[in-house]
Structure formats: C-alpha cells, structure tokens
Specification:
heterodimer; A: about 450 residues; alpha/beta; Rossmann fold; 3 domains; 5-stranded antiparallel sheet; 14 helices; 24 strands; about 30% strand; B: about 80 residues; mainly alpha; Non-ribosomal Peptide Synthetase Peptidyl Carrier Protein, Chain A; 4 helices; globular
Chain lengths: ~450, ~80
C-alpha cells in the first residue's frame, strides 16, 4: 500500500534512474541520484538519533535541496524550509517554534545558518555522499505511518507570529493523486516551477514529477523580471506545463512579450492565488490557444490546492474566473453566518486533504480546524478557510473576498496584522496601520512615533 | 534624468540611484518594480519600452535606463 510519499520517488528511481528529475537549467539531479542522496542523508541523520523531529533546510532553491527534504523524511523526520531572503527574526521564530536541533545548509548559506545556533549544523555536500544504511532505513519505514508529518510550512499570522501548518504523508498522497487525475499529468510533463520551496505551492510540480517520472525546471527568480528572457527559457527547455501565481503570468503579458515571442511548447497553464486581470487573461488565452487553462484555489491548511476550474467556456464580461469544484475526495461547502449551508458563505473544506493543524499552537488550530457543524453524530474535522465564496449559475464555486485583513501579494498570503505587529517591535513606534493599495499592488505601512524627549 | 530618479526613488527611497550600478545584479529591483518603472516611463515621458529592451543591461542603473529612454525618444 502507498503510505509514504517516498514510494513515488523509489518507483521512479527504479524505473528511470538516469532521467533528469529536477534541474535549474544548469545543474540537474536524476531520479537515481536523488534517491541515493536522500537515502544517504536519511541514514546519516538517523544514525545520530535524529528521528521524529524537525530538520531545518537552509539552502538556496536548487535540485539538491529536495534531497535534503527527502533525506529528512527517510530519517522519519519532517522538513522545514528556510529561505535566505526571510528576515532573521522570522527564521529564529520559526526554528524556535519547531525546536529544530538540526540545520542542513549549503556552502552559500552556511555562515548565516551558523549564526542560528542549532545543535547540529550539517553541510549538504558532507552528508549527501555518505554511506547508506539500508537496514536502518527499512526499520524506520516499518514503523512509519501515513499520518506522520512530512513538512511544516509557515504562513503569515495576524498577531505577528507565523503559524506552522503540519502536513502528513496521507494528505500529500491524497493531493498528489487528485491533482494528477484532474490535470492529467504524465511522464512527458515538463514543469517550469516558479513558486519558492518554503511553501506548499511547489508540491504541484514536485509530487507529480516523482509520481510519473516527469521533469521539473526551477526557473531562476531573476528571469521573472525580464519577460522575453523568461519565454526563451521556457522554449529552450521545452517546458509544457506551468503552475504560476498570476503576477508571474502578467509579467509576460503586461510587458508586451507576446508581441515578439511566445512559449511554444506550453500545453497547460495553471494559475491561482490572485485575481487574473481580464485583459491579461485574454492575452494569454489568445496567444496560446493550444493550452488548457486552469484556475486553482486552496489554502495551505488543506494541503496545496483544493479546487480547480478548467477554462472550457468563455466568461461573460466582468465575470470573475471561478474556482470551480473541489478535487476528487475533497468536499467544499459554504456556511452562512448562522452556520447553515448556503449558496454564499465561508468556504469550508473536508477530506483527507485537511492538514494536522498548526505546530505547537492548539489555540489557533482550534479556531479553524473544527468539528463539522453540519455533523452532530461523530467526530469529523473540517477547515474553515476564512474566505467567502458563492455558487454561480453553473453551480461553480467563485471566490468573493476575505473575512479578515489577510491579503494576497505576489501570491504570498500576508496578514496585514503581522506587519503592524512587527512595526510595533521597532523602538519608538507607538502605533502602526497597514493597508493594501490594490490598484498599485503595494503594501502601505503608516506608523506614529513616540514624541521625542526634550533634552 | 531628475524626473527618472524621482520615479525610482518612489519605489526605493533608500537607494542612491545616481551611484548604484547593480540595480538588477544586486537584487535591488524586483519584478513588480520593473512593471512600475515601465508604466511610469510611459506616462511621464510618453516613451514605451518595447519588450525586447526589458533586459538586465538596461535596468542596472538609472544612467542605463536614461540612455534607453533617450534612444527610444529619438526614434
């Protein structure tokens, strides 16, 4: 039975050991190498008694980084991805929350990682080539179950403290199977990944790549500034599938790149996390008529994406792009303010996709991972998204707005309250207020400072 | 040139745009900045930067950007 996400990797590594699994355009890792390095890292960690705990991975976005993730899982641990662009304060809060004793780092981030004071600081190159203890890995696997955690992903928290969403094998397997069924990926899929590894968003590319023995390119972030170069990259690597945040897609359309070039191999364009401006959506559809377009929707708390809409009909003018219907084995319903099911209300999700809540944060967990109010008979957890949705005339779900002051900026989920709380930590700042200027896509922070003391 | 510096300062008021030569290479600008700069140059100078000119070399410094605007304005 499939109880562990590593089985996807093992199957593909046995079938296609030489094939490139992940690449950044310069360096590649094959399925065989990825499996071997992951097992070496897993053996190394486990031999040192590091089990059932957080392993922080502080590396640049690189094909090797995945071997560190999977190495942690081989050891029976879960990974927490740290990005060098995160403010140090945030990194410390995260590491403290998960109680990470171990950090795996690369040469480039080693110095920064060393300043964080973990018990074990391991450099990737030192542990990825070590011996594999097959017997040890087998004994760990024998005791692993599908509700063991795989990763903790941190999202913005309104009180200034980020919340760590804990996901297990079972919800990620469920997501992988449902996503692949709906979007019809295959061994020939070549993904062009845009989203950073410290979210659950890249599971869209990583998991189907493992499942089918497909290939994912990590597109360098700097290319997203220069649309023509970005399209050239897609063409060079014959990328046929992209799942990007809308602001990455509009970078190509709004800056006029379609006038001089087009992504020739694209057959599937999935987008989400933000509103797609009508003009840009139209430009994409017109310029790549051979591609199928999907709008995806879902909170990290329900593992990756929960709903999808296939753009198989024309939208009327001013009509919002629907989020469609839930993936297989996921159910979505709308609760109105009185707690009854309705055609407009809070989007609630139930299913195996529901994650295990927020790490060491039972209060916040209990607020949104709740007993299904429609079920008074037995224990059934649902996740209340805080998003308001409605059903349109086709019965499709449509995102309407947020219940609170959470925003989406360049695909990132941000609580304006977290920014306000962070500003208040600065010396002299007495009051702070944060608003989102949607027209210019800017976050504006206003602070009032303490009156200066007279000397 | 001063008008251009003003546009850039609007985006990053902590950068010395007269001196900085690595706006792209040093990671000062991000993708939203590029969109904002292209849009602002269009509305302030009436100059449309064609997609093939949106490349790192033209955005690394205010000077390079100004040279691009001047070149495009002549055509």
């Amino acid at each position: 039975m499939r109880k562990n996400i590593l089985q996807y990797l093992e199957d593909s590594a046995a079938r296609l050991p030489e094939k490139t699994a992940f690449s950044d355009g310069k360096e590649n890792i094959s399925f065989g190498e990825l499996g071997r390095a992951s097992r070496a890292i897993g053996s190394y960690l486990a031999a040192r008694g590091i089990r059932r705990e957080a392993v922080a991975v502080f590396m640049d976005k690189h094909p090797r980084t995945l071997a560190a993730f999977f190495g942690a899982i081989y050891a029976g641990c879960f990974y927490v991805c740290i990005d060098s662009a995160m403010p140090e304060e945030r990194i410390k809060t995260i590491l403290n929350n998960v109680g990470a004793r171990v950090i795996i780092s690369d040469a480039k981030n080693y110095k920064k990682a060393a300043a964080l004071g973990a018990e074990w600081l391991l450099e990737y190159d030192d542990i990825a080539q070590t011996d594999i203890d097959e017997a040890l890995l087998v004994s760990i696997r024998a005791r692993q179950i599908d509700t063991d955690p795989i990763y903790v992903v941190f999202t913005s928290g309104s009180t200034g403290v980020p919340k760590g969403v804990v996901a297990c094998h079972r919800s990620v397997i469920d997501y992988t199977e449902a996503l692949c069924e709906a979007l019809e990926f295959s061994e020939d899929t070549v993904f062009g990944n845009q989203t950073p590894l410290y979210f659950d968003a890249p599971l869209k590319e990583i998991m189907p790549t493992l499942k089918y023995g497909a290939t994912t390119y990590f597109i360098p972030k700097s290319l997203f500034m220069f649309p023509v170069k970005l399209v050239e990259y897609l063409n060079t690597h014959r990328i046929n599938t992209i799942c990007w945040v809308v602001s990455a897609l509009t970078q190509i359309s709004a800056l006029g790149a379609f006038e001089v070039c087009r992504p020739e191999h694209l057959r599937l364009v999935a987008f989400g996390s933000e509103v797609f401006p009508e003009k840009d959506y139209k430009l994409w559809r017109e310029n790549i008529p051979e591609a199928t377009f999907y709008n995806l929707y879902g909170p990290t708390e329900a593992t990756g994406m929960s709903c999808y809409w296939c753009a198989d009909r024309e939208l009327s003018e001013g009509e919002s792009i629907p989020i469609g219907k839930p993936f297989n084995n996921t159910d979505v319903f709308l609760l109105d303010e009185s707690g009854k099911e309705s055609d407009e209300g809070e989007i609630c999700i139930r299913g195996t996709c529901i994650t295990m809540g927020y790490y060491k944060n039972p209060e916040k967990t209990a607020e949104v991972f709740v007993q299904n109010p429609l079920n008074g008979a037995y224990g059934e957890l649902i996740y209340r998204t805080g998003d308001i949705g409605r059903r349109n005339e086709y019965g499709e779900l449509v995102f309407v707005t947020r219940k609170d002051s959470q925003i989406k900026h360049m695909g990132h989920r941000i609580e304006l309250g977290e920014i306000e709380a962070s500003a208040l930590k600065c010396r002299n700042v007495r009051k702070s207020c944060c608003v989102y200027d949607a027209e210019h896509k800017r976050i504006a922070l206003s602070t009032r400072e303490m009156p200066r003391r007279r000397s | 040139m001063e008008k251009l510096i003003e546009i850039l300062q609007e985006l990053h008021d902590d950068v010395d745009f007269y001196a900085e030569q690595g706006l792209v290479d040093d990671g000062v600008l991000d993708s939203l900045d590029i969109v904002a700069i292209v849009t602002e140059i269009d509305s302030e100078f009436g100059v449309r930067i064609p997609p093939e000119e949106i490349i790192p070399e033209n955005f690394n410094s205010a000077e390079a950007l100004w040279a691009l605007i001047s070149k495009l304005d002549e055509v």
